[in-house]
Structure formats: structure tokens, C-alpha cells
């Protein structure tokens, strides 16, 4: 279970142990917390919530990508938008994994990952496998990482002859 909340109170109880009160706004998460058994011990891992990329950043990214596709002479922009997006992920150094699967599993990979790239085909125990580089995509980036991605895409736009001053 993952719960997002803000620390409200910290206090030392009569046994000398720290008690922490957390304010949880999400109703589903509130119900999960209510279901915890007070007689059991739980492990908590606390991480600071990082702001996800903004909708504005996402819209800007796709606008620039589309303009690059047009500048490169695309007649099938939506397909080329995806190849430019993949190029931008690679150039930005976005998070990825290598996965080897049977060729018929490619559509499953496309459903699970934002962008995939066929890297290699090999034989193992008489079966053919495709090795893919799979990217988690921009939806997993925080605002700082997304800013870097947009700057990379702007560089690609300049290389393609697009006037990036309109995006400022």
C-alpha cells in the first residue's frame, strides 16, 4: 500500500517512542489506513513526493515534437511523432530496461511501456527472441526531468529548422 500525506504532528509518547500523525486527503488511501490492524507492526518507508511533470509541459513537448515531424517533411505525422519521441527519450537519457521476448509479445510490450525499440534478434534453445529497449516514458518524469526532456526536444527542433522562440 502506498499512502501520500503530510506530517501533522510529532510527539513522544509515555514510553519514549515517537508518534507521528499524518494527514491523508485521498479517500481510498484513508480507507486503506483505517483497515490497518493496530496490534500488528508495519514497515513504513518515507519518501518526499516529487511533483510530476505538468500538463503544460506535456502539451508543449507534443507540440514541439509535431512541429519537428512537419519540418522533417513528414506526411504521416502521428507515426513520426512517436519516432521523434523515442529519439528524444534516447537523447535525454530517459530510464529504460532491456527485455527479451518472443516476437509475438511485441504488442504486449507496446501496451506496458511508452516507447520500445527493437535492438537485436537472437536464437535461444531453438526459439527466436527479440531484444527490446523499453522506456518508461515522460509520464514518469518529474518537472525537472521533464524540463531537460523539453530542452532536448528544442535542440532537436533547432536541428530540424524549427523556430523555437515561439515556445518561450
Rg calculated over all Cα atoms? 23 Å
Order of helices and strands: EEHHHEHEEH
Helical run tally? 5
Terminal Cα separation, in Å? Answer: 41 Å
Number of strands: 5
Low-confidence stretches: none
Helix percentage range: 25-40%
Strand content: 15-25%
Main sheet characteristics:
3 strands, antiparallel
Derived from helix and strand composition plus strand pairing, the structural class reads alpha+beta
- What strand order characterises the main sheet? 3-5-4
Shape by Cα distribution = flat
Task: Give the overall average pLDDT.
Answer: 88
Describe this structure in words.
The protein has 168 residues and is α+β, with helices and mostly antiparallel strands. It is 39% helix and 23% strand. Helix 3 crosses helix 5 (143-159). The model has no long low-confidence stretch (mean pLDDT 88). It has 5 helices and 5 strands. Strand 1 (6-12) and strand 2 form a beta hairpin. The chain has helices spanning 27-34, 55-71, 77-92, 106-112, 143-159, and strands at 6-12, 18-23, 96-101, 115-124, 127-135. The strands form 2 sheets. It has a 3-stranded antiparallel β-sheet with strand order 3-5-4. It has a two-stranded antiparallel sheet with strand order 1-2. The two termini are 41 Å apart.
Amino acid at each position: 500500500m502506498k499512502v501520500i500525506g503530510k506530517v501533522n504532528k510529532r510527539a513522544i509518547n509515555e514510553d519514549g517512542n515517537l508518534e507521528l500523525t499524518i494527514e491523508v486527503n485521498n479517500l481510498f488511501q484513508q480507507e486503506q489506513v483505517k483497515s490497518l490492524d493496530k496490534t500488528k507492526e508495519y514497515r513504513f518507508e518515507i519518501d518526499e513526493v516529487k511533483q510530476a511533470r505538468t500538463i503544460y509541459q506535456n502539451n508543449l513537448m507534443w507540440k514541439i515534437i509535431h512541429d519537428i515531424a512537419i519540418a522533417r517533411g513528414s506526411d504521416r505525422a502521428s507515426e513520426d511523432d512517436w519516432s521523434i519521441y523515442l529519439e528524444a527519450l534516447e537523447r535525454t537519457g530517459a530510464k529504460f530496461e532491456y527485455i527479451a521476448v518472443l516476437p509475438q509479445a511485441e504488442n504486449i510490450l507496446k501496451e506496458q511501456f511508452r516507447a520500445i525499440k527493437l535492438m537485436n534478434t537472437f536464437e535461444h534453445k531453438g526459439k527466436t527472441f527479440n531484444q527490446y529497449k523499453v522506456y518508461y516514458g515522460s509520464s514518469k518524469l518529474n518537472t525537472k526531468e521533464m524540463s531537460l526532456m523539453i530542452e532536448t526536444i528544442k535542440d532537436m527542433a533547432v536541428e530540424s529548422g524549427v523556430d523555437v522562440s515561439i515556445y518561450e
